[in-house]
């Protein structure tokens, strides 16, 4: 049995779902992978929950909200780096903050700090990866630790697993993805007759779209994902500024429905395609018409999917995978297992 | 740079495609994964090609056929086990024979011998895995070596990668697959109006079906794959006798076409589904009606696909992946890379 020390940064929906999944899977992780996970600390902007032993949810939150005032496990001003240093190398940071897409913070500092302390990192947040993935990857290699990103690249849909593991040895010649469930839901409902405003409103009422839906509908969530996937799978170093982005707000219901009558569909498609200049890629997010025979044509509602075109393996498509906080938590857990498990 | 000694057993279509892919990817493997692959021997039933150094295709074959008589690299009676012992542990067996589904031979002896010599094994042949996967897996664990099966479980379609790696930590609650390209091609063409005999004949004329198509059309190829996938992903120990198998020969064109008119399709579906008795699975291969919304509904022609139903990750489907000898060779190469590559 291997005991793995963890520090969880952030305690929003994903952090909470991770705790609950970890508890649900406790016996299973021991039996199937020989792993016991101990959360030593949960970091917030102003300090850490820390009790000197494995933390339980009841020590962190009351009524679902972080519980600081009067909590014997709350240490204002305590830093993650200190906990990592005290614990020694070999643990894993579980990055669940809402990191900024321009500065990468606070995730960037957390992950960098973990690597310097000899810890691995698994990330559900995108900021640090959008801003500095190549540098983080180089630092991880230098320190001999893992950086795993499943939680930040479409959660339970295994985009990077396929791109990096299942396609090992193949040359990727193009990537196409439906990477955002909210916009795919809205476009699917528009195909069924709702106009954009109605479909968005319904998605908000059902908790699929955020009250401020801009990050999804303007295409930036999709752009962040195709950027991270491209940089990781193609060893590239693009930034968000290199992605041509058009969201779905300008898509008319007539356009979606006439496509549908012709047996086609409109999807917010993210693509990475090779430029004429060898080794250069063009990154693009925009509402696109796809044929009924396209491998992503059946990806409807909140589902997501990705297609890789390769030289030696043909085209490989993966679809599905839960995309709610539980799906993101499952992706984090998977990455942790794949860092520590015995050979399989 | 890590130099990996290989022994290839069998030199049929897949073995030849593996050689040609290895040569094509030589520089790429060095640059991307730091690996150099050296084939030390190619084994046939009556002896080995062996020259004391890395073998080239021209030393093994003339005009595409194995070249024994008068060949300075041909050693009649030479055994794979002797080459492995002489080389020492750490190499990899590349199993490409046509192994028997009842005895598992010759693959079973080759793989067992490799493990006893401290070698890993990657397999494109199914016999040994159908007959004795759990025992082979236990032996591999005991010897601290890898047994990888991508080439035997739908080639470039990453069935086991998803089941074992991408779904780590999730509980698999069901598996459904279209795992044989030949039968899927025939059923697809029947949907387009051909009767069974016409569709089969066309598949044979196009090199998709074998001159003796029984292994495919009677469902045994599909049964072997769902069996190996189930045993590997669910830690089970079923045999071919546990799989209920019905092939496609009795499927009428009327049935396929009336399904199509209703927006459904007929697929040779392999399923593993939980029995009421906890921990027991029911394995089944039969022509099945699936709805247009089923994630495998769009898998047509020689394409394949697999869907995993899980507790924490929802349903995850992977489709596509080249299934010709080049695809199988790419799957073998991927498994070798994933055994030896540095952490990623």
Quick overview:
The structure is a homodimer of 344-residue chains. Chain A is of the alpha/beta class.
Number of strands of chain A: 15
Q: Which value, in Å, is the CA radius of gyration of chain A?
A: 21 Å
Kindly report the CATH topology of the largest domain in chain A.
Rossmann fold
Structural class of chain A: alpha/beta
Q: Can you tell me the residue ranges of chain A where pLDDT is under 50 for at least 5 consecutive residues?
A: none
- Outline type of chain A: globular
Oligomer: homodimer
Major sheet description of chain A: 7 strands, mixed
| Largest inter-chain contact set | A-B, 55 and 55 residues
SSE succession of chain A: EHHEEEEEHEHEHEHEHHHHEHEEEEH
Features:
7-stranded mixed beta sheet, 15 strands, 2 domains, Dihydrodipicolinate Reductase, domain 2, homodimer, alpha/beta, 344 residues, Rossmann fold, 6-stranded mixed beta sheet
Give a description of the structure.
The structure is a homodimer of 344-residue chains. By secondary structure, the first copy, chain A, is an alpha/beta fold. Chain A has 2 domains: 2-156 and 325-340, Rossmann fold (3-Layer(aba) Sandwich); 160-319, Dihydrodipicolinate Reductase, domain 2 (2-Layer Sandwich). Chain A has 12 helices and 15 strands. Chain A has helices spanning 13-24, 26-33, 80-87, 107-116, 127-143, 159-166, 181-191, 196-205, 214-217, 220-233, 253-261, 325-340; strands at 2-9, 35-44, 47-50, 61-62, 65-66, 74-76, 92-95, 120-123, 147-148, 172-178, 243-245, 265-274, 281-290, 305-310, 315-320. In chain A, the strands form 3 sheets. Chain A has a 7-stranded mixed β-sheet, with helices on both faces. In chain A, strands 11-13-12-10-14-15 form a 6-stranded mixed β-sheet. A two-stranded antiparallel sheet of chain A has the order 4-5. In chain A, strand 12 and strand 13 form a beta hairpin. In chain A, helix 4 runs parallel beside helix 5 (127-143). The longest helix of chain A is centred in the middle third of the chain and has 17 residues, at 127-143. Chain A is globular. Chain A starts with a strand and ends with a helix. The mean pLDDT of chain A is 96. Chains A and B meet through helix 2, helix 6, strand 15 and helix 12 of A and helix 2, helix 6, strand 15 and helix 12 of B.
């Amino acid at each position: 049995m291997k005991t793995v020390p963890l520090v969880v940064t952030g305690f929003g929906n994903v952090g909470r779902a991770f705790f609950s999944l970890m508890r649900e899977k406790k016996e299973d992780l021991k039996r199937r992978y020989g792993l016991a996970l101990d959360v030593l600390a949960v970091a917030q902007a102003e300090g850490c929950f820390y009790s000197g032993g494995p933390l339980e949810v009841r020590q962190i939150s009351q009524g679902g909200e972080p519980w600081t005032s009067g909590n014997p496990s709350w240490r204002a001003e305590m830093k993650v780096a200190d906990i990592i240093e005290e614990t020694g190398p070999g643990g894993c940071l579980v990055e669940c903050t809402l990191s900024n897409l321009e500065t990468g913070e606070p995730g960037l500092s957390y992950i960098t700090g973990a690597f310097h302390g000899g810890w691995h990192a698994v990330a559900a947040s995108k900021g640090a990866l959008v801003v500095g993935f190549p540098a983080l990857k180089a630092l991880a290699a230098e320190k001999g630790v893992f950086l795993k990103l499943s939680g930040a690249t479409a959660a339970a849909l295994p985009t990077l697993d396929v791109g990096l593991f299942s396609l090992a040895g193949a040359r990727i010649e193009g990537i196409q993805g439906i990477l955002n469930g909210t916009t795919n839901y809205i476009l699917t409902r528009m195909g069924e007759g709702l106009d954009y405003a109605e479909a968005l409103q319904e998605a908000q009422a059902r908790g699929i779209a955020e009250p401020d839906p801009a990050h999804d509908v303007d295409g930036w969530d999709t752009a962040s994902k195709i950027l991270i996937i491209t940089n990781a799978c193609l060893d590239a170093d693009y930034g968000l500024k290199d992605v041509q982005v058009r969201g779905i707000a300008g898509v008319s219901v007539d356009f979606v429905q006439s496509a549908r009558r012709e047996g086609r569909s409109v999807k917010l498609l993210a693509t990475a395609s090779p430029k004429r200049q060898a080794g250069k890629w063009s990154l693009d997010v925009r509402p696109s018409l796809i044929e009924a025979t396209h491998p992503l044509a059946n990806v409807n509602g909140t589902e997501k999917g990705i297609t890789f075109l390769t030289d030696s393996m043909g085209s490989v498509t993966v679809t599905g995978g839960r995309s709610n906080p539980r799906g993101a938590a499952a992706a984090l857990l998977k990455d942790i297992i794949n860092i520590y498990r015995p050979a399989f």
